[in-house]
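Hi there, hope your week has been kind to you so far. Would you mind checking whether the tokens look sensible for this chain? I owe you a coffee for this, so here goes:
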Amino acid sequence: MNYNNSVLIGNWSEERLKNEYEFKIFLRKRDRRELLLQRSRTLFSNLLKERPLAISGTFVLFGFNVQVVASDMPVQKGSVGKPQYGLALSSLVNERQVDFMQNINDGCLMTLSPITTPCCRNTFVILSTEDTSLHGVKMNYGDEFLLRAENYGDPQAAPLYVRYTPEGVPGPADRMPIQLSAILDSNCRWTTMPLLPCDRLEGLGSPIKTNAKLVIKNCVADKSLCVMNQNWMQTFFGPECGVTCRDFIDIHGRYTAENIFSLVSDVETKKKD
């Protein structure tokens, strides 16, 4: 005769005690907010918490929040209905990291997300490499700058910077070398230049207008920030696109849409979009 839970002898007492133990473990995890559902909600709350952009006028200013947006890139190929454009540079915490990360952290990969609402994961403070304390000073073409991500879920955490890791040897085409780093070195330095070749000589040193189309280059690699339009992936926040540093230039010497970005740093420009 086989014994099971319906028989009040044999392993019935052991099963009852096991169920009680598992229920106590569940209650303990719930009280400590360690359940996967609770961790997921905390993650979404921290990373998608809206961060309103300051009204900084018509120019990009050091010390203000900015978004790096590829405004000419479609949200995703093959989408049904009216095509949508605009991908925002964003930090990513994937589903495998939910158990031990509820905020952005050192090593978080950078992606391009269709979610362009200003929030923790896609809003950065733009800082001058010459003096990080500058605030309210116009940023010019050719100035080197840093993109600092702030961990609003943990204000005491160390600052994180958008960093590009150059390839020592040729790697796979889908490699994503841009991530957040607590190490501030030369690989975190970026610069801009006007989009049109005819404006690059005269435009160097002139202030950058908010939402102006431009090219962002990494100072060490001397390569342009680039949309990996063929590398879409399913993430914890929906489908997102990869980002790297690579030059896409047509036969006329002009950068293509993969290299065209804009810096959005004020409310008025965001409303116009």
Summary: Helices lie at 12-31, 36-47, 200-203, 267-272.
